[in-house]
Specification:
Helices cover 26% and strands 20% of the residues. By secondary structure, the chain is an alpha+beta fold. Strand 1, helix 2 and strand 2 form a beta-alpha-beta unit.
């Protein structure tokens, strides 16, 4: 890891500003990202922004699920429903007590955890 950037803003507000700064400071050849599960809107915004950058700037994209960034902890879906991953299967599960889910970037990415399958990972149907 060369640099860490954190934001409390919504994805739609933070992502364009973060990438503006990154692209001014670095030359990006590849981007590795989580394609879901999570907020339907955040997944769409992330995909559209990164796919656009990929096309316009010729940046190669690689994706994985979000569990690679949170030590395989449950990820909030809605209300008391969470996404959980068991034996490579992602499903939803009712969990009574709220779980805090912290995401982090590892010092070194394990490239074998990523693929060129960058399509958004929607588990729940759109509401």
């Amino acid at each position: 890891m060369i640099k860490s950037i954190c934001s409390e803003q919504q994805t739609s507000e933070a992502l364009p500003l973060i990438f503006k700064d990154i692209l001014e400071e670095f030359t990006c050849k590849r981007i590795f990202f989580a394609r879901g599960p999570g907020s339907f809107m955040a997944i769409k915004i992330t995909y559209i922004l990164l796919r656009t950058l990929s096309i316009v700037k010729g940046i190669e994209l690689f994706a994985t699920d979000g569990f690679n960034f949170n030590q395989n902890s449950p990820i909030k879906a809605m209300r008391k429903m969470y996404f959980v991953k068991e034996d490579e299967l992602i499903k939803t599960e009712f969990i009574e007590d709220e779980i805090k889910c912290d995401f982090y970037l590892p010092q070194n990415l394990k490239i074998e955890n990523f693929s060129k399958d960058i399509e958004p990972l929607y588990i729940l149907p759109a509401v």
